[in-house]
Design a protein that fits this description.
The chain is α/β, with parallel strands linked by helices and 308 residues long. Helix content is 48%, strand content 10%. The protein has eleven helices and six strands. The chain has a four-stranded parallel sheet, with helices on both faces. A two-stranded parallel ribbon has the order 2-3. The longest helix is centred in the last third of the chain and has 29 residues. The radius of gyration is 23 Å and the shape is globular.
Length: 308
């Protein structure tokens, strides 16, 4: 049974980068993956598209022929897709939404509250298994210190604590007419109790693995039976104790001790490169060459255990 992710988010949130990174990651761990592009304005993709809406209709054509602007053109393209829905092969029995937002939104209380409202609206309208993701979390330390730990933002609870910082950000908010509105907004989000965030550093393998585990749980993949050897490899790895990153791990890695971890990873990469060079030199000295017919699978970082 196919499982799918509907990747949404505002411009610049990292949707294309995520699709490229997740496609590479799934391929590395041996899971079949196809990417479908539903953005009629996305003319350059860094990943292979199994289906591309631009084969059906392009934003440029719509704007020229229908005399529409960019926003109207996108809406027209989606209506065109709806009329030709048979073109989009319906193999998406298990569809989940992935709402990406640039983690820069954490730096300003107004942006964070806007993100909460947008995320809540998306969850209510789409009516799908839904994950909200703060992307580019590896950049967050460069934006300056945050008034709260990362867990405050990912859990989205006790939101009234952020209101004093909203007043500091914009003196206009000190007006009494905004006080009731701001309180009503945070109470609305808390009353629904739906919004929370995962984090993602798309170039970090452990971060990608952690997000994929959350996606698998939300979409039901983690609870289904293994279908084929590739799924078995992944499930064996998870069963043997493959652990992701908690929000406190993310806080430590990307905020509290980022420079220390960066240096540690740099040294590990240098040591690994040195070992590879030494191995190549040793083989040259022995006059042995690798059989060109034998190809080594890329290191996925997952330990596979065979049954005795």
């Amino acid at each position: 049974m196919p499982f799918a992710q509907l990747v949404i988010g505002p411009p610049g949130s990292g949707k294309s980068t995520y699709c490229d990174g997740m496609h590479q990651f799934l391929s590395a761990i041996g899971r079949k993956c196809s990417v479908v592009n539903l953005d009629p304005a996305n003319e350059h993709t860094s990943y292979p598209c199994a289906l591309d809406i631009r084969d059906l209709v392009t934003l440029e054509e719509i704007m020229e022929h229908e005399e529409l602007g960019p926003n109207g053109g996108v809406l027209y393209a989606l209506e065109e897709l709806e009329e030709n829905v048979e073109w989009l092969q319906v193999g998406l029995d298990r569809l989940g939404a992935l709402h990406l937002t640039d983690s820069y939104c954490l730096t300003l209380p107004s942006l964070y509250i806007s993100t909460l409202l947008l995320s809540l609206r998306s969850m209510l309208q789409l009516d799908l298994p839904h994950l909200n993701v703060l992307t580019k979390i590896d950049k967050i330390s460069s934006y300056g210190p945050l008034p709260f730990d990362l867990e405050f933002y990912t859990e989205a609870q006790d939101l009234s604590d952020i209101l004093p910082y909203l007043l500091e950000e914009n003196p206009v908010m000190r007006h009494s007419k905004f006080e009731g509105l701001n309180n009503a907004v945070v109470e609305l989000v808390e009353d629904f109790g739906l919004v929370a965030f995962e984090t993602l550093a798309v170039e970090d393998k452990k971060s990608m693995m952690t997000l994929l585990q959350a996606i698998d749980r939300a979409g039901g993949y983690a609870f289904g039976g293994a279908e084929g050897a590739n799924d078995t490899v992944w499930q064996v790895a998870v069963r043997d104790g493959l652990r992701g990153m908690s929000v406190r791990d993310v806080q430590e890695r990307w905020i509290d001790r980022k420079e220390e971890f960066d240096e540690m990873e740099r040294r590990e990469m240098e040591e690994e490169a040195a070992r590879v060079r030494e191995g190549a030199e040793a083989m040259d000295e022995d006059g042995e060459e690798e059989d060109p017919e034998i190809k080594t699978a890329p290191d996925s970082g997952i330990k596979v255990v065979r049954k005795p």
